[in-house]
Write a structure and sequence with these properties.
The complex is a heterodimer of chains A (81) and B (190).
Chain A lengths: L8 E5 L6 H11 L6 E6 L4 H11 L3 E8 L4 E7 L2
Parallel strand pairs in A: 1-2
Antiparallel strand pairs in A: 2-4, 3-4
Chain B lengths: L15 H21 L4 E6 L4 H16 L3 E6 L29 H4 L4 H15 L5 H10 L3 E5 H6 L12 E4 L1 H10 L2 E4 L1
Helix pairs in contact in B: 2-5
Classes of the chains: A alpha+beta (81), B alpha/beta (190).
């Protein structure tokens, strides 16, 4: 799954709850370059829906994948512009 | 009237050049209108200053900023408490008037009960790693959210403007808020 893209940066927001996973993801994306993929590790179960919603409603980002692991939700977001 | 031919050439028929000019004019107007509408905007009016009611405007403001919205939060009446740097860290939860509280209203009205319920809520916030009001304000300010403090209520309720967070806009009133709401894609009164 993650073999399809290289991860430029990992953001650990484990423990943080709404709205921080989305807010910190946005800040982390701002610091990346076009084409970079950000991996987000969260424990907030709402992050699956929230990061999906954020990515579809935000210009310049694309949600590549989401995975639910052992109590950790992983999100892969590419900066597209 | 039935003898009129609608497509008969007359003085009022615009020339090709006139039509082309009109098209250019409309295209310019459209470009201007759409460019102004490029960024989405949200306008929130925050009127409450209890711990529970301080959260929704701040959570929505910071999240909308993460979506790239231009966000204005206009604070008035008790909403000004959220902008007060010291008191925002110590907002209270009311134990009365909320039937979902674990204590009956008659007990909740006893002296000191607001302090008890506030402590309970603060503990839950800490245990759940929910952001504090201060964190949400600092984060929102970093993300470019504009916090406005209503001038009329600053004076009515004797606030000292120097005690607000740095970056709070003062000297604004209802007309400013209304203008923001008129321009916004989302308007909320909390």
């Amino acid at each position: 799954m993650s073999a399809e893209f290289d991860i430029a940066e990992t953001l650990d927001v484990k423990g943080a709850s709404c709205p921080m996973p989305v807010v910190k993801t946005k800040s982390a994306i701002d610091d990346l370059s076009e084409g970079d993929v950000l991996e987000v590790l969260a424990t907030d179960s709402g992050s699956m829906s929230d990061i999906d919603g954020w990515a579809s409603g935000t210009e310049g980002v694309e949600l590549l994948d989401q995975a639910e692991g052992d109590d950790v939700y992983k999100h892969y977001v590419r900066k597209t512009e | 009237m039935s003898t009129d031919t609608p497509d008969a050439p007359g003085d009022e028929t615009p020339s090709r050049a006139e039509l082309a000019a009109r098209v250019d004019e409309l295209e310019d107007a459209l470009a201007e209108a759409t460019s102004e509408d490029d960024g989405k905007k949200m306008s929130i009016i925050a009127t409450k200053g209890t711990l529970d009611m301080a959260y929704p405007p701040l959570i929505l403001a910071s999240t909308a900023a993460a979506f790239g919205y231009e966000v204005t939060v206009f604070h008035t009446f008790w909403g000004l408490e959220i902008l007060h740097e010291e008191r925002s860290k110590d907002l209270k939860l009311s134990s009365v008037g909320n039937p979902n509280m674990p204590v009956p209203n008659a007990v909740a009205a006893l002296p000191g009960m607001d302090r008890v319920t506030t402590k309970m809520m603060e503990k839950k916030i800490a245990d759940n790693d929910t952001a504090t009001i201060e964190e949400l304000i600092e984060t929102s300010l970093d993300m470019g959210v504009e916090f406005q403090a209503c001038q009329m209520t600053i004076e009515l309720m004797d606030y000292d403007e120097s005690e607000f967070y740095d970056g709070v806009t003062t000297g604004v009133g209802a007309a400013t808020a209304l203008q923001d709401m008129a321009d916004a894609d989302i308007q909320l009164l909390v």
